[in-house]
Specification:
CATH topology: Arc Repressor Mutant, subunit A
Strand order of the largest sheet: 1-2
Strand content: 5-15%
Shape: globular
CATH class: Mainly Alpha
Distance between the termini: 43 Å
Largest sheet: 2 strands, parallel
Number of strands: 4
Number of domains: 1
Number of helices: 5
CATH architecture: Orthogonal Bundle
Helix content: 25-40%
CATH superfamily: Winged helix-like DNA-binding domain superfamily/Winged helix DNA-binding domain
Radius of gyration: 16 Å
Oligomer: single chain
Length: 115
DNA sequence: CATTTGACTGCGT
DNA sequence: AACGCAGCCAAAT
């Protein structure tokens, strides 16, 4: 086959990373899951692991649909995330531009539940 | 191979 | 409500 790639053509992502990205891509618009919830769905890793994966590889998936346990959007991305929530009609609580929270009781998505 | 690094979490103060 | 903190675990260094 081809000789060992010299520079860095197409780096293959670690299997765990691909599984995280695939699952995030399935979260319906207007719904969210928490980092810890996602880790449990995958059956491995933890909340921080998922967060680290999204930080590094999440730019091409709906990363704003993965939020913190308390309903807070990802650290440092509250503004860009908020635009998406408004656009998708995700139920929010609170008023501040950077102090709002997702209404988890309404927005939480559970793939094992009704879709 | 050993250590450090996080878009986190739950509990205590 | 706001901190601090130990536990977490795959990836990156």
């Amino acid at each position: 086959m081809d000789p060992p790639s010299p520079a860095r053509p197409i780096e293959r992502l670690p299997e765990y990373v691909e599984r995280v990205l695939e699952t995030v891509a399935e979260i319906p618009a207007g719904r969210v899951v928490t980092y810890g919830q996602l880790a449990r769905l995958l059956g491995s890793g933890g909340a921080r692991t998922v967060g680290t994966v999204l930080a590094r590889y999440g730019s091409d998936v709906p990363w704003w649909r993965v939020v913190r346990a308390g309903g807070h959007p990802p650290s440092g991305l509250q503004l860009p995330a908020r635009e998406q929530y408004l656009r998708e009609g995700t139920p929010l609580l609170g008023t501040g531009l950077g102090e709002y929270r997702i209404d988890m009781s309404r927005a939480r998505w559970d793939p094992n539940d009704a879709g």
